[in-house]
Amino acid sequence: MDQHATPAADADAASRADADGDATRRAAAVDLPDGRDLDYSVRGPSDGFPVVLHHGTPGSRLFAALLADAAVEAGVRLITPDRPGYGRSSPPPDGWDWHGWREDLTAVLDAESIDRAGVCGFSGGGPFAIAAAESDRTTRLALLSTIVPPSDAGLAGPARVPYAIRLLFPLFGVFASVSGPDAVVGQYTDRSVSPAVARAVAADFHEALGSGDARDGVSLGDASAVERESRSFATESVDPGRLDRPVRAWHGTRDDNAPIAPVEEFVDDCGGTLTTTDADHLGTLLDHGADALRWLTAE
Known about the structure:
- The chain is α/β, with parallel strands linked by helices.
- Helix content is about 35%, strand content about 15%.
């Protein structure tokens, strides 16, 4: 097994949302024991406090662009993997779920010579962040607009219908490629966002579906990872009793993508802290992502 991080060429569309000449950005990949590749991005200072950021469903390493400036300001070395089946990472083996994610993430931490790291999860990345936080190599768990399984919210309902997501998402990808970034942003927030944020959100979406070059042509992409994760959100559950580290969540009272009630119950059961805010799904991330990074560094 090669646990040495190898550089990866990464002409990220999302990186164009950041200032030119940003020297805090790099991409890498690690070989997993079963032969799969796991790609990830690293943002922020190289000597910063390590935090692993878990993108949503769908999502990719490009999601890091939305918190890149906050990472620099907080002194955070932000590591954002493409989960298996997204972006440039290999699909997972049969039966793989968020519990298997801990082993994959261990390879990334070893490759980056990180002993312990904070973990942060947004939306569908929340269950994976929760699973990662069960490892003794994590320090704190931050959740933003998270899904807490079991849940039929969002894509979990359609995931119960065979091939529904695999058919619907590529069609939406075509629509989004033609309509532009605002079509993607509108799935997550009703607020007006800057062009830079809109480009970053759209780039993350297209990269997740394997259609990162959709701006130069229409690509159908691949929604199998979205289908797999969404189905697991509907049928599996998380156990707050397995967590023995600090937990804090931020969640919008106007979040139509992820219901707040399961988050309230989960945070209460694990003795954590929940901050509610008058915001929607993406709005909570934009308003409180920097707060989450600062909290993760405060050991």
